[in-house]
Design goal:
alpha/beta; binds nicotinamide-adenine-dinucleotide; six-stranded parallel beta sheet; Rossmann fold; 35% helix; binds L-homoserine; Alpha-Beta Plaits; 17 strands; binds sodium ion
Amino acid sequence: MAADRKSAPLRIGLAGIGTVGAGVIEVLRENADIISKHCPRPILVTAVSARDRGRDRGIDLSGIAWVDDAAALAARDDVDVVVEVIGGSEGKAKEVVEKAIAAGKHVVTANKALLAHHGTALALAAEEAEVALAYEAAVAGGIPVIKAMREGLAANRITRVYGILNGTCNYILTQMRETGREFADVLEEAQKLGYAEADPSFDVDGIDAAHKLSILTSVAFGCAVDFAGVRISGIRNVSAMDIAYAEELGFRIKLLGLARQTPGGIEQRVHACMVPAASTIAKVDGVYNAVVTSGNFVGENIAIGRGAGRGPTASAVVADLMDIARDRILPAFSAPAATLARAVQAPVGQRVGSYYLRLMVVDKPGVIAEIAGVMRDENVSLESMIQRGRSPDEPVPLVFTTHETTEAAIARVAARLDEIKSVLEPAHLLPIETLE
Ligand SMILES: NC(=O)c1ccc[n+]([C@@H]2O[C@H](COP(=O)([O-])OP(=O)(O)OC[C@H]3O[C@@H](n4cnc5c(N)ncnc54)[C@H](O)[C@@H]3O)[C@@H](O)[C@H]2O)c1
Ligand SMILES: N[C@@H](CCO)C(=O)O
Ligand code: NA
């Protein structure tokens, strides 16, 4: 019996046949020979479910059972693993995963929103049911970052993890820099390429990166997933002008997710920031993601790869299926779920670092002195200033970089500058991350 099970097919119920789901079928078919070399059990999709049965997806579904209600996949005798690639933190996706676990089926998902909101509870349920909850595709797409952190780096105390965690934003920022095009144009392109979330504001407002960061934080620091503890802002306010000034100042603008252990607790932040143009992360462009992990013995470890799209994401889903077929099942978030306590979150406003500040001002004598006075009052020291172009009729940009200061001090500066009549727009503020 045991020998039979070891070579019997691992049967998949696929919930969702969109970008990722169709990719999973494609990888399993096209790479069947290579997969069988690494894996003692064939992996077969036996049942599928999606919203629209009649849609032409360009893949042959003959011989695969169609299920109208994806949650019914859990009850099928011909399904050992439910692959959830529907998306969304609530609704059908959650029901599918919960029912699968309750029915004793393994789960593989690409759904970071679901895990960010319900990851710890689902991990607990999966452990109690003695089934896998695997989600490599959910964080940094095709990069095996969960595997690296949970296995390859497992002997380390992790002190910091950060990276480019959203392919759509990185694609948009790269295109804006390379072509000077505006944000909205490029977003449409990322959607067409299958990179963006169903609601692309999740990408551009930093929510998707925060979902992923909260999962990484849990794996890295052995705490409960705490999405509410992430401070989030996105890239909507990054303009072509800031991208050009970044270049001039020796930086690139990236949307980063950063988590680290501080004396006051765990700090989790997602925001656009300037990074040194010469740094490795600055050169990670397009749909590529990067995850940089610091461990107390290994030092710094960098993984780079495609973070979104059909092929890379499906590659990660299938790798998880292969682990299940090999009986390699680990606790979802590295530590056993029952030990994942809610970590203290670091207090807000305590970031210490430099800032980029762009103001749009009326070009008249005394403006700079007034601005410098505010900085002096708040004890914020200037590192550089760029003023170019004179125009009595139009707002002109004034760009500053500061020496090290606190987030709270720079926020007070921005609020006070907003009250100056000759400052025409709220300050465009970006942290400068030296990544040291
Ligand atoms: N596209 C990517 O690059 C990528 C990368 C990593 C993770 N993900 C995640 O993978 C998941 C799927 O993303 P996608 O890009 O493939 O989305 P998609 O919109 O292309 O596909 C979603 C699929 O789910 C089906 N679906 C929707 N509601 C359903 C319901 N109630 N019952 C049954 N089926 C339903 C749709 O019919 C469709 O087949 C999401 O969680 C997403 O965040 C996507
Ligand atoms: N929308 C996501 C998909 C990958 O998780 C991104 O652009 O990174
Ligand atoms: Na991954």
